[in-house]
């Protein structure tokens, strides 16, 4: 199987050879080449051996190095032998930097089993639920006491203070809520357009803003600002 994907100034070529696959990188490859490079690398099966030939690569950025190293881990996890050849100068430095920054996969320890572990989890759940229930009863009791106190002594109910706080928390918060929603919408539109452009989906930026602001961020932002005020 032979084929290549060309970016602006570079390309990735795959070729089947005896015992495995050779991936040859040539020229300058950057973020704009990442979708094509990932597609080609995903087609390398974890069988035999794989060789990444970077002798013809003049320069790569961290996204290409990340794609190569992630493919290397995937193939090695599948039992394939992977070699990276010809990396020199800046290309080798980029690979080493990204390799050092990649998180090492960590296996989570298996949860304890048995009757003792089950009883411990049940006890923690019951104790946590009891604390939350007692806290809720305290708040509910305070609310009920103050409510009946207001009915029993209506003259002590501070209506002016209530209206003042309602105005400060609600009406006066409208400008800052609108400003923050507008600024977050602008930033989200800019970042979303930059990412969706890679897939030719810029037309969905309007839908992204409408759904995220009206359904999610707008409500959450309003709640946070009102609670803070």
Structure description:
This protein starts with a strand and ends with a helix. The chain has seven helices and five strands. It has a five-stranded mixed β-sheet. Mean pLDDT is 83; it is low at 1-8. The chain folds into two domains: 2-101, Transcription Regulator spoIIAA (2-Layer Sandwich), CATH 3.30.750; 154-229. α2 packs across α3. It is an alpha/beta fold and 229 residues long.
In CATH, the homologous superfamily of the largest domain goes by the name STAS domain
Q: What portion of the residues fall into strands of 2 or more residues?
A: 15-25%
| Beta-strand segment tally | 5
**Briefly, what CATH class of the largest domain?**
Alpha Beta
- Counted up, domains total 2
| Radius of gyration based on Cα positions | 30 Å
Anisotropy-based shape:
elongated
Mean pLDDT: 83
* Major beta-sheet overview: 5 strands, mixed
Number of helices: 7
- What percentage of residues falls in helices of 4 or more residues? 55-70%
CATH architecture of the largest domain: 2-Layer Sandwich
Contiguous uncertain segments of 5+ residues: 1-8
Give the terminus-to-terminus CA distance.
Answer: 64 Å
Structural class: alpha/beta
CATH fold annotation of the largest domain: Transcription Regulator spoIIAA
- Order of SSEs: EEEHEHEHHHHH
| Strand line-up in the sheet with most strands | 1-2-3-4-5
